[in-house]
Write a structure and sequence with these properties.
The protein has two helices and six strands, in the order αββββββα. Strands 4-1-2-3-6-5 form a six-stranded antiparallel sheet.
Length: about 160
């Protein structure tokens, strides 16, 4: 069963928005650090092109309330993973391009598939008047306007 054209269009534009947000988040992380932290030692933040998480004081990890913050960043992009177990503290960094790349590839595939579906849907129609020629013999002119099937532009 083929997906409905409206569902296909909504999916491709939703994927485009998600990909755009990931790219903006990645690019903005060079200038700004934003995240969520707890005094008890659980932190999640975006900084220097990475999604980071850190934990310390694991005995009281979930105590207290968390807060959101945003502040100026002073570091350049970091392009690879890092895991730093330092005594009782863990710091893990996952590069944001790892999330953005599949999202961008999926968005490109959604746009390509939607374009192909549109071309296939128009393939059996007359290029001049849009009449459905699926039941018309291959070499016959359009029964509605008389345009030959292989004619690409109506005013040739």
């Amino acid at each position: 069963m083929k997906p409905h054209p409206k569902i296909r269009k909504v999916a491709k534009w939703a994927a485009a928005m998600f990909s755009s947000l990931l790219v903006l988040l990645w690019a903005g992380s060079a200038w700004w650090e934003t995240g969520w932290y707890r005094d008890s030692g659980l932190n999640f933040y975006v900084h220097a092109g990475k999604l980071r998480g850190s934990a310390y004081d694991t005995e009281h990890l979930w105590d207290g309330r968390g807060e959101w913050y945003i502040e100026r960043a002073d570091r350049r992009f970091e392009w690879w993973f890092d895991v730093n177990p330092n005594g009782g503290m863990w710091n893990v960094g996952i590069p944001l391009w790892l999330f953005a790349l599949p999202a961008l590839l999926g968005t490109a595939a959604a746009f390509r598939l939607d374009t192909l579906a549109g071309v296939r849907a128009r393939g059996a129609k007359c290029s001049h008047c849009g009449y459905d020629r699926s039941a018309t013999p291959a070499k016959a002119n359009c029964p509605e306007c008389g345009t030959p099937k292989n004619r690409s532009r109506p005013n040739e």
